[in-house]
């Protein structure tokens, strides 16, 4: 499985942002406004299902053993390792606890 984070940033019109926010609030739980209500952030995780099969294992082997690339950062990793790396990235870099706490409490 391959994950990507999609982040769209929309510049809001201050004259209409309050009305639009009220209408969209119930519809889109994956979007939130900036603190100054000038921007709206739309967040989505896109996943592409791929089997961890012989081709993916061969890809990893070729990149690390033949081409000498570091295994760190490769997308061709076993599913559990990729899942752990993705979750750690989301938790530590995209939604650190101080940011997520302020979003939830605001």
Give a description of the structure:
The protein has 106 residues and is an alpha+beta fold. Helices cover 43% and strands 22% of the residues. The protein has helices at 17-24, 54-66, 79-94, 97-105, and strands at residues 2-11, 31-33, 39-48. Strand 2 (31-33) and strand 3 form a beta hairpin. The model is unreliable at 100-106 (pLDDT under 50).
Produce a short descriptive summary:
The longest helix is centred in the C-terminal third of the chain and has 16 residues, at 79-94. This protein is an alpha+beta fold.
The radius of gyration computed from the alpha-carbon positions, rounded to a whole number of angstroms, is 19 Å
Spatial strand sequence of the major β-sheet: 1-3-2
Q: How much helical structure, as a percent, in the residues?
A: 40-55%
Mean pLDDT: 76
Number of E strands? 3
Q: pLDDT under 50 segments (min length 5)?
A: 100-106
Shape: elongated
Strand content: 15-25%
Q: Please identify the structural class as seen in this structure.
A: alpha+beta
N-to-C series of helices and strands: EHEEHHH
Sketch the major β-sheet: 3 strands, antiparallel
Number of helices: 4
The rounded distance between the terminal residues' Cα atoms is: 34 Å
């Amino acid at each position: 499985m391959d994950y990507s984070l999609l982040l769209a940033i929309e510049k809001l019109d201050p004259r209409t942002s309050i009305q639009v926010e009220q209408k969209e609030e119930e519809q889109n739980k994956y979007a939130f406004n900036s603190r100054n209500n000038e921007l709206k952030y739309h967040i989505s995780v896109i996943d592409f299902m791929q089997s961890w099969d012989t081709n993916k294992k061969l890809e990893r082997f070729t990149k690390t053993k033949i081409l000498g690339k570091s295994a760190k950062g490769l997308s061709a990793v076993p599913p559990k390792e990729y899942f752990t790396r993705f979750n750690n990235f989301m938790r530590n870099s995209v939604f650190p606890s101080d940011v997520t706490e302020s979003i939830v409490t605001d």
